Amino acid sequence: MMGLTAELVVDGRAPQAPALAPNGRLLCYVLAPLSRNGDHLDTELWLVDTDATVASRRATADTATESQPRWSVDSGTVFFLSDRADRGTPQLHGLTLADGTLTMLSSWRGGVLDHLPLSDPNLVALLAEDEPTEQDTCRIRDRDDAIVVGEREPRTRLRLLDLRTGQVTTPSVFGDRHVVELRQRPDGGPVAVLTWASADNDYGPRSGQLHLFDPTTGTEEDLGPVEVDARSLAWWPGADGWHLGYIALTPPVLQAGTAVFDLAVDSRVLRNHTAGLTMCPTELCQTDAAPLVVFADGLNTTLARLDLTDLTTLSHQPGRLDNVTTTPAGDEIAVLTGTRYQPPNVHIGPPTGPLRRVTDTRPELDGVPLGTQQPLAYRAADGLDLDGLLVLPVGKTAAEGPFPLVTIVHGGPYDRYADRCQLFWFPSAQWLAAAGYAVLLPNPRGGQGHGHQFAASVAGRVGQQEWTDILTGIDLLIAEGIADPDRLGIAGWSHGGFMSAWAVGQTDRFRAALVGAGIVDWGMLAATGENGQFEAALGGSTGWSGIGPHPHDAVSPISFASNIRTPVLILHGAEDTNVPLGQAVYLHRALRHFDVKHEFVIYPRESHSIRERHHQLDVLRRTRSWFDRWLRT
Length: 633
Fold this sequence. Notes:
The protein is of the alpha+beta class. It folds into three domains: 15-104; 226-351, TolB, C-terminal domain (Neuraminidase), CATH 2.120.10.30; 369-631, Rossmann fold. 15% of the residues lie in helices and 34% in strands. The strands form eight sheets. The protein has an eight-stranded mixed beta sheet with strand order 29-30-32-31-33-34-35-36, with helices on both faces. A four-stranded antiparallel beta sheet has the order 1-2-3-4, with no helix packed on it. Helix 6 links the parallel strand 33 (483-493) and strand 34 (512-516). One of its GO terms (molecular function) is serine-type endopeptidase activity.
């Protein structure tokens, strides 16, 4: 029996963006490699019959990046984006199923970013930035390209493509606002449009507005501001007229649980439709009637229907459900989901379940032994109910412990560990379990799946109760004889990297740590990261909050660098704009100053996630080698 290798982890392919045809007979999805070779990610468009009488078949044959399949109302054409004509510049294409004709439908300089086929069969809405002018071209050629912040900033605008003529028009609507998302009313009425004041991630999500756009008349109506970080628009009819819903952060704090907000369009009354729930909505899926809502519910997922007065639970699904797509009637859905030991595949069925798998995109993992994964339920020091996962070394039972234990903290912090297959390019449980480690995957407060208060409790207080929540889980496994207290490691990426850096500044219990793309100074991150105001809410202050010391100093790992004795592996992408490289440099210099054993690895061309194949292989091998070095002796 073949064991798990780094190549098996990164050389697979995963389904993305399933799109169920309105007639429910066909499903289109994107098949994408997990890692990238070269400058472009070559993806493929696939079709599968929902009755499973015909095997999945590739819909296109080009070497290209293909994405965002969307169906025409009559289910006869699937529209998608592809850069087959000019790599790196996606254009709208249409595949007519009756005769297999593939047509490039746009030639917008700069490319198309998103699209929405409208109820009028001759119109497709496009989202694209302004085409470069001759003056822009001259400036680039002459290197007269000084960037003046606030001037000539890119904006994504709404365009209309007439399929009869191929002409693209740009309605004079929304001023200079940046268009983010579109959703047409299911009866073919106006298009709901979500805009930001700018494309700046620090500012845009806090400046969202909703509009109605009539594609027939070209006119718009302003519906006013939305809650912070609004997304996932969905319409539904009610006795009092049309309602428009979206998912957004629960006010007033920026680090909070999400909620479903319900806007009665005629009366402009807005209500929080999920207040007080201990679940967190992740997606709204529009139907011709009441929309479907996906909830992160602890380690698992709940699927519900949103009625005007209540939520009706339809099914409980193990692990995660993502990218839900449905027929107009809402009687059939397609989702991405997997199991504890199988990566996500496309599944279809009624929203009440059961769901059946219709793709098998990782057959190379069949028969590869994985560690036993089991849910954990325990209580924090203050009595709060917590959950998480334990993955045992491959071929071992809990009774054979104690084992070296690596705790991997999730990112976000508004993320979660769901009871799904834990095998990824970044520090993941099954990769370490294959090397003989037990792995704890805790869900401390601040994360998703337990309601608003659970998530909001870390705002301005990161590294406090979430840290003791993690320690409680470790101590539980030590007490049960599963974890060896003398061979503990800790790891994480992004916010998990922060928690790893925080941990080694608070205790010497860990013999090794991995800090991947981690935060070490919250004031610095608020000043330089792309999500500055969100980071300021987590850290509690900014550098311009007056003369220090500032609240963020007390929750920044760099403030405790003189306490660190644990060997640290630092991994970071050179082009990371979410958590800029300077955070890793800061930690590296502090550890060098205090003569702490560490390695510092920078991945050229990489952002917050590592995408290139050789870099992913290096992360996997270096991670395992690092913990072997310190926890095996």
